Amino acid sequence: MEELYNRRNTTSKQSDGIQYIQQNHAAYPQKLLCYKGMPKGLYVLGKLPDKTRKSVAIVGARRSSAYGNQIAKSFAKELAGAGVQIISGMAWGIDGKAHEGALEGGGDTYAVLGCGVDICYPSGHRKIYEAMIQRGGILSEQPPGMPPIAGHFPARNRIISGLSDLVLVVEAKERSGSLITADLALEQGKDVFAVPGRIGDEMSKGCLNLIKQGAGLADSPLVLLEALGIKRNVSEKSVKIVLEKNEDIVYSWIRLQPVSLEELVKKTGFGSREVLFALVGLELKGCIREMQKNQYVRTDLRITNGEISGYRGVTSKGENN
Amino acid sequence: MFSSILSATVLGMDAYLVRVEVDICDGLPQFSMVGDLAPEVREAADRVRTALRNTGISFPPKKVTINLSPAHIRKEGTRFDLPIAAGLLVALGVVPRDYAENIMMVGEIGLNGAVRPVSGVLQTVMLARQMKSKFCIIPRDNRGEGASLPGILVVGIESLKELLECLLSPSYIEAHTEALHLWEPECASYSVDFCEVNGQHGARRAAEIAAAGMHNFLMIGSPGSGKTMIAQRMPTILPALTMEESLEISKVYSACGLLVGKEGLAKVRPFRAPHHTISANALAGGGKKILPGEISLATRGVLFLDELPEFSRNVLEVLRQPMEEGWVTISRVNGKYSFPAHFQMIAAMNPCRCGFYPDRQRCSCLPGEVRRYIHKISWPLLDRMDLCTEVSRVEYTDLLKKTENESSARIRERVEAAHRIQKERYVGCDWQFNARLPSAAIKRFCPLNPKEEQLMETAFEKMQLSARAYHRIIRVARTIADLDKEEQIRESHLLEAIGYRQVDQKYWEE
Q1: What residues make up the domain containing A220?
Q2: A10 and A129: one domain?
Q3: Distance CA A128, CA A124 (A)
Q4: A85-88 and A109-112 beta bridge pairing
Q5: Is residue A236, in this structure, part of any structural domain at all?
Q6: Which of A87, A144, B160, B347 has the fewest CB atoms below 10 angstroms from its CB?
Q7: A96 vs B202: CB contact, 8 Å cut-off?
Q8: Collapsed DSSP state (helix, strand, coil) of residue B493
Q9: E strand or H helix that includes residue B470
Q10: Beta-bridge partner residues of B333
Q11: pLDDT classification of A5: cutoffs 50, 70, 90
Q12: Whole-number Å distance between alpha carbons of B296 and B326
C-alpha cells in the first residue's frame, strides 16, 4: 500500500533534490533550536527560510469560506509583497490560498508537510507544490516516501509556528487544528493574530475566541507589518472607475460572502435582466467575482465614491528593519 | 390449399411488408413454421390452433406449412398471430380467398380467441396506406393510433369471431370502421404550468431563452430548490407541435408500444426524465430487439437529466453525437437502425455532494471533494450546454405568496415568435434554431457592432473565455435579440448572455 502510494505520487526528479539538514548543521533554522521537541533534522526540497527575513505563518480551516479564502490570499499577497516569507501547511482551504497569494505577490513561501517532501499532498495542490520548490521550499521531518498519515499532521504544526515570527489564524471553527498551531505559537512566545468574522458564523468562532483571549486583531495586513516592525510607505494608488447607477445599487448588496442572483433580484427590486446586466458589468470592471454559477462575491478592490483602490497600491520600504 | 395474407414487421422506426403464406395439404399431421422466426413467433402455432378450436372451428389433422416471407428478415413479436389465423381460415376454406386479399392485419391472439394489442401499429397502418390496401385489421386497443391517418380504413377487432365477420360480410366493415382521430394543432393540454413556479426569476428567464433558441440548459442548485419543477414545465413553453413533429414522436412511441389505449397521435411534447442509473443502451436505444432509447422517446421534447454528475460517464458520452446530429444510429449484428433524437437537453445538478456549497455554514465538503464532484461530468458534454443558471432555495414567504406569475401560454407566445424569426432567417440552412448555428456561420448571422465587439473583447480577456464559450455566448445573445424582436445584437443582449454563460472549470477551483 505504502509502496503503491509512493509510486503514484512521487517523481524521481524531485526526490533527487532532497537535502537532509541535521540539527548540528549550520543551515538548520536557528529559530527551532531554542525549543524542546524539535526534529533532529529536516528534509528540504527547495530551500530553507531565509534567517534574515521575517516570516509569518498563515493557517486556518480546510473547509474555508469564500471570505476566508479571499482574506488569506490577499493578506499573503500583501505580506509577500513586503518581503515577508509565508509559511503554512499546504492543506486545502486557507493554507493553500496563503501559499497561492504569496506566490502571486512575488514572495517566497514555505510549506511544512506531514508526509515525505517528495509527496504532494493533497494532490490537487500540485501546481503550488511545484511553484514552491522554485520559489521557497517544502520541509518535513518525515523521510521521503512517508505517506500522509493523519497522526503526523498535528505534529508538523509546531514546526510551522516555530519557523515563524508571527502566526495569523484566518478562519477556524471552535475546535480546529489551526488552534493547535496558535496554542503552540503562544507557548513558543510568538505573536498570534486572528482575522475577525461575523458573530454566529461557524467558521469564525475559533478566531473570535482567540481575539477574546488576547490575540491581535488582524483587520488589515498593515497591522501585521507593523507588528513585525516593517515600515511601509502607504501610497494608495486609486483607479477612477465609474459605476452606473444600477451597478452601484447592486454592488452595495454584494459582500465577501456569496450572494445569489435570486437574492439580489429580491433585494434590489430590479428584474432579473437588469440585475444580470449590472452584475456582468461589475464583473467586467473587476469589482466582483462569480465564484460559482450566479453566486457573487466582492473582489479585493475597494470602491469608495466611485473610486477603486486595492491593497495592490500599498508599497513597502525598508524591509526587515 | 394455399393462402397469402398481408402483414408487416417493424424494424427500428419503420414497418416492412411481410406475407404470411399458409399451405394445408394431405400428409402426416404436422404444423411447421419457417421464415427466420423468433421463439414467440413460433409459439403462434399453439396459440392460433387453440384459439380457432375455442372459436368453434375444427382443425383437421393435415400437414400445415406456414412461411413468413421475405424469409431472410428476422420476425419478432406476437403481431403475426392474427394474419396466421386468417391464413388458416382461408386455407381451410372457411373464408373465400379473394375476401381476404389485400388486407393488412396485425395482432396477438389469446387462447380464448381474444385479440390483444401489439406495438408498431402506426407504422403498419402507414405502410398499408402506402400500399393502397383495402383496409387494415388491428386490435381494438390499438385503434387510437391506428385510426389517426386519413386515407385508409381501419377496423379494430376484439376476437376471432369478429375477424370472421369482418372477412365474410362487407357490411360489417362499413359499420365498424373506426372513427378517425384526426390530428388537430393547438389542442395540447399540460397538467403543469409555469405560473406555479414562485420566485426563481433568473431560472424562469433562462428557461424562456433556452426554449426560444432550443438551447441546452443546465441548472445548478441545492436539493429541493425547484430544478425538477422548472424542467417539467419546459415542454409547456415550447411551441405547439406540428403534424410532422407529432408523427415523428408517435412513430417512436408506437414502436415502443406506448400508444396502446391512447387517443390518436401525440399531442404534447414528451418530457423524459430517466433515472441516473440508466445504461447507455437504454438511453441511446438498443437491446435484443432494437428499440428506441430515452433520447428518441424525448424527440421534439425535453430530455431531463437530474443529478447529472451521478450518471456514469460512458452513458453521458453516448449523448454527444446524437446531440449534434439529431439522429442516433445503432449498429448491431442484425442491422443498422436510425432513430430521431431532436431533443432539448435540460440538466440539473447540485453544486457539491451535500448540495450546499458555497454556503460554508452547511456545506461540509473539502475543496478537493467539490472539485471531484464537478469533474465527474465530462467537459465535452458540459461544453454543449449553452445556458447555465443557479436555482436557489425558495424562501417560505415566497412559497406561500399568492402572486400572479406569468403563465406558460404567455411565455409560449414569445417563444413562438422567436421561433418564427429563426425559421425565416435560416431558410435553406441545415439548421433551424440558434442553438445549432455552426461557428462558421456566426459571423454571417450575428454580426456585432464595434461597441459590442469591444465588450466581447473585454469579456474574453477578463473572464478567460474559450473560443467555444465565446460562440455559445453569441448564439444565446442572438436568441435574446430574437426574443426582443431585434435585428441587431445589442450590448444588453450580450451582457445577459454572459450572465448565463456556462460554468468554467475555474469556478470550482476556488
Answers
A1: 2-231
A2: yes
A3: 9
A4: parallel
A5: no
A6: A144
A7: no
A8: helix
A9: helix B467-483
A10: none
A11: low
A12: 9
